[in-house]
Structure formats: structure tokens, C-alpha cells
């Protein structure tokens, strides 16, 4: 009865907003929507360079629209399709990857840059070396032997100030020894050791290709920061205007090397939260809305809105991590009992409104390495057994929660409260401490993270399990902000490394499932949920294909 009253009150409140305050956020000027589409998303972690951002709107807005990658995945599989590359070859020893590049691809002509050449190998070398921290190939000022700040030094110092979370999480600079151009349309990547994950990393949503010519121009003016704020790519759309935290206007790239986009203008509306985006959609101010408030989608039926919903399984995991720096948390029986105390089904119903699945495994079902069988020691809800072990221990635990909403943790504080209530039933007291991402990173940097448990999540940029499990659980990441459990288990790292040493997909999948079984056996984390990606679209918009990473390609859209 109480829940029914809450739902009715919420619906009434939104109804009031729709009737009286739906235009609180400024409408996009009508002139910009001619032959255009409005895509409503969120500004959280937005950057015009997705390499520098965590999961956020950058992926939806930038990767598929402004830039291109060397490769992409075919139909959410492990098979690679060439994009800016045309083919590749791997040496017999697995340490040399030769990539052949597409000819005739043009960079954007914008108000801030006019290219003088087409895309070539120099752009790939520059783009990869930038995230590797190896950009020393930029030339010094001609003839200025004694010049105290040659160009390459300026660039190198600037590059070191920029962080690339995804590539740092996989330690790409410890995988790739060098990148060099063999000729204008051929690049060679030299690896320290054979590594089957490299090409999937180059197909990830973070592996975009920049214009080296544009970077050189900016570097000459000591204005390299503009590379990430006024983008230049090879994609189907280019940036026309950007108003921070409000909207971005994209216009069609008439020089695009593939089929021309049908829609001329795209407005990316960044101005509202989940409820606000739904209100705008009801008002006809959004053609497509990403990550809407799931609990309120019933209002679309109430207002007879002509729409459809797109959902897809995603490479993500929300989980509760134990802090192994705390001696108490090193007891596997304790960790297993805490796992048995948590009602994950209730979390799926209350937090995700059934828009997620219970994570009985670590590797999400959408991955090519996922297993259909749940191991015997995947811990179902068993409060009686948990109580028998925990009730006399009088535990008082600190639970940290990063108070940021992501699609895989849509209501982190509320989820923490549910976990607290579950543990209270079995005799464990939990103190919730909400923190910011900045505070967390600072505490980890200073080794002062005083938590017993931490509620967090992870989303990968491709379907390869390596970039999913290694960053959050390997010994290699103990000193980084990714492995929040501070768990180090050498057998796990050994199996993960074995998976990289073979290019046979079945063998790799087998190794990753062994690694997964080790995690489920040792319980360094409690997997909670795998969330689905969701968007709603007006029935007049067709051609939407959503990837497991939330991306859609605006170039394929058209009006019915």
C-alpha cells in the first residue's frame, strides 16, 4: 500500500511538472532542428575526447559520430571488421602486428582547422603514441639546436598531464613497445609479448584516431588542449557549436568516406537529469532519450506517446568489493556469509526495475567468453546460513559509496541502503559513507582508504573479458584506483596471462572461465547486477542500432 502511494505521488508530481514547468530548461532553437534530430542524454563525465573520460555521454556523442577507429566488432561478436584499417597481419611469433590503412579518408573542415592532406599512417602513430605517453616523434623547431623548449618536449610535458583511464586500466604502455609507420598507408605495432587483446582494444570505443597535422598546428601555438575541446575527426558528423552542459550541435560531414548521413543536423541535449529527459521526451523536445528513469516509463503509455524502447545486454557489472587491506576482510568464510545475506533479487526489482539480471557470474552474458552454467559456489540468497555465521560476531563495517549515478549503478545510495538493511537482519551493522570520485582517488593515492566494503561498478569498452576482469582484480592493479578490493591472487593473474598468450578463441574463453571460477571461489567481490542499456525513441525515427556500449550511429538514422 505504501509503495502504491509513493508511485501515485510520483506520477502526480511529474504530471504537475509536465503541465507547468516542462520548459524550465531552454528549448533548442527551432532553426537548429530543421532536417535535424534531438538526442537527449547526460553531461556526466562528458569530454570531446572519450579517451580522457570514464563511462559517460562521450561514448554516445563522440566515438560513433565525430571520429573513426581502426576496427569495430561485427554484430557484438569477437570478430573484427576494418574501418580506417583495411586488413592486418600478425607475425608468427605474435609480437608484430602490421595494419594496412584505408586511402582517401578526409579529416573534417571546421572553423578552427583546414586539413591539407588525407588520413594516413602518421595519424595512427600519433594517436596510439599519445595514449602510450611516447609522443617524442614530433619535430623540434628547425635549426634551434639550443632552444630550451623544443616542440617535442612541450608536447611530451603536456601529454603527461593528461590521463587516459581506459588505457591506463589495461596498462597498454606495458603491452606495446613501439608504433611506427612503414609507409603512408601501413603501420606496424611491436609488442613486448604476444597479446591477443591488442586488436580488441583498438576496436574499443576509446581507440579513436586524431589528426596529427591538427596536433602539430596546435602544438606550435602551445595550445594542445584544444585537441580535446575543439575536435577534428573523420566521422559522419562534425561539431558546429557547443554550449557547456547545455547542448552540442553536430552537422553532417559532406566529405565522409562512407555513405552520407540522411539527417543533416543533430542536437545533443545535455541539460537534464533522468526525469527531466523523460519530461522533454513527453513534450516532444527529444526524438531519442538515453538512460531514462526506468521507473517512470509507464507515463509514456498514460500520455499515449508514440514511441518504442530499445534495450540491449551490456558489458558491465555492479558489485560490492571487500577491502583486503583490512585483516577482517581476508576471511573467505566471512566474505561468503556476507554474500549470502544480500538479497540481489530485491536489488534488481527495486533499483533496476527488472532492467538488469542478477550477476551470478563475473563475465556478463553478452561476452563471447560467458558461460551458461553457474558454478555451485555462486552464492544465492541464504539469510539463515548467513545469520548462523555472523550473528555473534557483532561486526560494525564501513561501506563507502561513490555517489555518482551510472547506468550500471542508477541509485548507488539507495542500493547501499538495501545492502545495509539486509546485513542488519543477520546481525551486521553497516555505516554508509557517501564519497565523491575525487575523494576516493585521493584516499587511494595516499593509501588512506578506510573502508571495509565499497559499492562500485565497472563497464568495459569491448567484449573481451581481459579488459573487464584484469583492471578490477589483478595484482598488477594493486596500486591503482581500479582494483578497489586490493585483492592479489597470483593464480588468477597466471590464468589471465595464459589467455593472452593464445589467439585461439575457445582456448582464451576457457582460461577466462577458469579465472572467473577463482574469483567466485575466493569472493574478493560480490557480483550484484548486469544492467541493460535502454533508450526510448519517437516512432518517427528509424534505423537505430544500439551497441552493448550504448552507442548508436546517427548516420544510419532516418525519419519514417
Q: Determine the CATH superfamily of the largest domain.
A: Dipeptide-binding Protein, Domain 3
Q: What is the count of β-strands?
A: 20
Helix content: 25-40%
**Which outline best applies?**
globular
Low-confidence region ranges = 1-25, 139-148
CA radius of gyration: 24 Å
The number of helical elements comes to: 17
Number of domains: 3
Mean pLDDT: 85
SSE-based structural type: alpha+beta
For the record, the CATH class of the largest domain is Alpha Beta
Give the second-level CATH assignment, the architecture of the largest domain: Roll
Termini separation comes to: 43 Å
Biggest sheet details: 12 strands, mixed
In CATH, the topology of the largest domain is named Dipeptide-binding Protein, domain 3
- How much of the residues is beta strand, in percent? 15-25%
Written description of the protein model:
The chain is α+β, with helices and mostly antiparallel strands. It folds into 3 domains: 115 residues, Periplasmic binding protein-like II (D-Maltodextrin-Binding Protein, domain 2, 3-Layer(aba) Sandwich); 160 residues, Alpha-Beta Complex (Dipeptide-binding Protein, domain 1), CATH 3.90.76.10; 216 residues, Dipeptide-binding Protein, domain 3, CATH 3.10.105. Helix content is 30%, strand content 20%. The chain is built from 17 helices and 20 strands. The strands form 4 sheets. Strands 1, 8, 9, 10, 11, 12, 13, 14, 15, 16, 17 and 18 form a 12-stranded mixed beta sheet that branches. Strands 4-5-7-6 form a 4-stranded antiparallel beta sheet, with helices on one face. Helix 10 crosses helix 12 and helix 16 runs antiparallel to helix 17. The chain is globular. The N terminus is likely disordered.
